[in-house]
Amino acid sequence: MEPDISEDQAAIVECTIRAVQDIAGVLDRKHQILAQRTAELHMRIDDICLPVDSEDYAPPELLTLNVGGAALTVRRSALTHFPDSPLAWMFSGCWDHVLPRDTKHRPFLDLDVSWFKPIVGALHALSRGTEPHEVVVPVAHLAHDDRLGLRACAELLGLTEALRFEGGVAALTAPPPPPPSPLDIHFRKPCVFSSEFRPVPLGVQTIPAAAAPIAAPTKPVVHTPVTMTFSEDMAALAAPAAALARMQQWLAQEVDSIATAERALQKQNDSFALECAFMRRCGADMDSAGERLRAWLQQQLQQRSAPAQQLEHYGSTSGNDTSTDNNDDIVSIAFTDVLGHGALSTRRATFLQFPASPLAAKYAAERWRESLSAEARDDEGRIYEDHDGDCFRRLVNIMRLRALVRRGDCPSGALDACCPKPEATAPMRAMLQYLMVEWGELCSPFARRRDTPELYKA
Fold this sequence. Notes:
Blueprint: H1 5-48, E1 62-67, E2 70-75, H2 76-79, H3 86-90, E3 108-109, H4 113-127, H5 144-156, H6 170-173, E4 201-202, E5 205-206, H7 238-281, H8 289-305, H9 310-317, E6 330-336, E7 342-347, H10 348-351, H11 358-363, H12 368-371, E8 383-388, H13 389-407, H14 426-434, H15 439-442, H16 444-447
Parallel strand pairs: 1-3, 6-8
Antiparallel strand pairs: 1-2, 4-5, 6-7
Helix pairs in contact: 1-7, 4-5, 5-13
Protein name: Potassium channel tetramerisation-type BTB domain-containing protein
InterPro entries: SKP1/BTB/POZ_sf (IPR011333)
């Protein structure tokens, strides 16, 4: 006896509905997990970052930066013109409390100002509404080492693809193409290749034309008519089938919405992780970010409540503010250049790359400021280095480039094939010999690929 078709179909529909209900329960649990992950991420962001959209803190539009010892006044809207760039992350206002700052409470960038200033000029022009094709970063006036620094700076800040450089990006660091060889073959017209086969006469014989390919026999397709007879009881399954169809449509929408929310959350999580990693590379202390945030907000509230005593308050709290802990890591140096005076600022880690050098021994101690006598400082408190000013600035810039290459902040690898030119002047050789720095070791990160293990060592 054959089974009743309607009973089998009803059982299948019932099982399907139960399965759909189970899937709906799984989706509800995924919604809960997704909401929990979102709340955890937002809690982490609120604990580390400044609430820039609140009334407690309003990021100032005008910023005065300490770029390698030079004061540079910029607008925040220009620095954040490209929102997805690391430069916009740094000055979005969320990280103002953890930015490395100098003794005057200015954000510090360990870059040469000749690298950063052309980029800032292009960003200012773009933020004022200038057409992108009209904005070009000038590089022709820069020396070879400064072109390397400008390229490294643009890659560090994520602006290599966003800005147009004079002569193209490759002109910043790529060497000129080699001159053409006399044996090079050049075609006046483009060559056209054809796959057509034609017989070519060879004496009295000719090569026969290629035979047509033999068509493989194809298996005939047999169309078998299938006739299904439904009983009158199938009409009772119309309503469950329609409900099941609506449930499936709802499930499809729920799955798409959950997938979209997961992708958005993952993107936000990855972006925040990249921001944290970039701020760590820039010298920000992320371990005590919560304490810095609370101290920063408390200072802002106190400054608003007593604007007349702002300077007095700053002088009394600057020593206790946790954001000034990294001031001891920033070294301000004075030297004598061709103009009679020169100054720069850099991090202590710049000089610690060569442990055997007198510079490393001078700035390695934890309380190095107290070990220096008052005679070694100028009237602004900067440490005086008795070296040729141009040579010393170039040495510091090469050390900065070494730090960028070792941290892996230059993703395109343009610095792999380029290196600073060798020392050509007697003062440069004398200074390197006095400081016990070998030129080959100084330029070693530029002469080899950065994917070697030793370049990732601290």
